[in-house]
Amino acid sequence: MTTPTISIDGQRLWQSLMDLARIGATPKGGNCRLALTALDGQGRDLVAGWMRDAGLSVRVDQVGNIFGRRAGRNDALPPVMTGSHIDTQPTGGKFDGCYGVLAGLEVMRSLNDAGVQTEAPLELAIWTNEEGSRFVPVMMGSGVFAGKFPLETALSARDAEGKAVRDELQAIGYAGPDPVGGRPVDAYFEAHIEQGPILEHEDKVIGVVTGSLGLRWYDVVVTGMEMHAGPTPMGIRKDALLAASHLVQSVIAIANAHQPHGRGTVGEIHAHPGSRNVIPGQVRLTADLRHEDEATLTRMHEAWHQAAQDVAQRHGVSIEVKDVQYFPPTPFDADLVGKIRDGAAARELPRMDIVTGAGHDAVYMAAVAPTAMIFVPCKDGISHNEIEDARPDHLQAGCNVLLDAMVARAGVAH
User: Do 124 and 134 form a contact (C-beta atoms < 8 A)?
Assistant: First the structure.
């Protein structure tokens, strides 16, 4: 393969990340820049200003998504798009989402420096409320863009204080005029920190993301009988918490039986009445099952429902399992995945195929355009945490692969 001739400015990328991180900085070195707060508005203003400085034409749609466009030689072609988000968790880090946005910006800046014009236009997107920590639904801006739910559902969503998205967009100046979506996109790339430990553990710099895990979420109510912990013999108890403990083990066992991509988690347990000397009469819990293969995820789903029936019968309790969320597995586009793999190989970067277990805007964008993602390692696999960290050289490497893939897709004007 020929050696790439254009490389990004890693120091400029790092400095941009650090400059953005000062807005909403937290004492432990992270960020709290919740969607559509004044701090989010300041972050948007900063990055949109950088977009304009790089010669991009900036537009904002009705849900507050920001698009910076770099003209192509044939500007009538659909754009090759990249992007992510800059809103954070309440105790978020400097890199989650922000890296994808600023890597895209650095691609545009580096092409400017090299005097390279692409055949198709390039676009950089900042999606509204990806995190879902202030407003639901999660991945809001990309979800409306991809037609996953109506604009009005997003605009009427309210936070814990009763403030609506439409009003908060107005308050920070990002209630844009453009319609949301409904226009062609040639391809969508998203660079991101892995948010898990695999790349670091395997000593790889680039994760070639082949798709996202599907997930199924459940709310569970186990109902037994409250009785006195002292006088009630073990053999006649209807202990809801004991039954729930077997459900927890079932979730984990089902995931372990479907490796390497099976995931199973019980994240919440609430026992009632919560008294030291009362046998719990009711337990509420959540369950989360994930896999990259739809048929396998369906088998896991069926095994979980069967396990709940078996536990209920064995322990003399009733168990209600409510299906509350389903995201099907999302395979990414083979051609775009190949371009990422080729770019990493051309730059001789240690790489591996990987799937994402987290939700990203790319998962929604895959419904409207060929899509792929690039992962780089994060320290100890930690994310959604103020101590989230990534190495500058890894961030630079991922951005170079993004540049190569976008140019390969958009073509170089001659």
Answer: no
pLDDT per residue as tens digits for the range 72-119: 999 999 999 999 999 999 999 999 999 999 999 999 999 999 999 999
With contact defined as beta carbons under 8 Å apart, do 214 and 328 qualify? yes
Give residue for tokens 């976008």.
Answer: 406
Measured CA to CA in angstroms, residue 394 lies from 31, 107, 371, 408 at distances of 21, 15, 22, 21
| pLDDT range class, residue 411, cuts 50, 70, 90 | very high
Burial of 227 by CB count in 10 Å (0-12 exposed, 13-18 middle, 19+ buried)?
Answer: middle
Whether 266 and 206 have beta carbons less than 8 Å apart is answered as no
Distance (Å, whole) CA 101 – CA 85: 6
Global pTM exceeds 0.70: yes
The answer to whether 361 touches 85, Cβ cutoff 8 Å, is yes
Q: Measured between alpha carbons, how far apart are the two ends of the chain, in Å?
A: 21
- Residue 189 pairs in a beta bridge with 82, 372
284 phi and psi angles, rounded to 5 deg: -110, 135
pLDDT tens, residue by residue, 365-375 = 999 999 999 99
Task: Give Dmax (Cα) for the chain.
Answer: 87
Phi/psi for 12 (5° steps) reads -65, -40
Burial of 271 (0-12, 13-18, 19+ CB in 10 A): middle
**Structural tokens at position 264:** 């199973």
Q: Is 96 helix (H, G, I), strand (E, B) or coil?
A: coil
Q: Name the residue with tokens 């066992």.
A: 253
β strands within 34-172, DSSP E: 57-60, 66-70, 80-84, 122-126
At 388, the amino acid letter reads E
Tell me the average pLDDT across 46-58.
98
- Secondary structure element (H or E) that encloses residue 286, with its range: strand 282-291
* Residue 29 region by backbone torsions, left for phi larger than 0, else alpha for psi between -120 and 50, else beta: left
Q: What gap in Å lies between CA 402 and CA 192, rounded to an integer?
A: 10
The amino acid at residue 357 is: G
d(CA 323, CA 257): 21
Who contacts 388 (Cβ-Cβ below 8 Å, separation ≥6)? 30, 92, 93, 94, 95, 96, 193, 378, 379, 382
Beta bridge partners of 353: 208
What span, in angstroms and rounded, lies between the C-alpha atoms of 272 and 257? 31
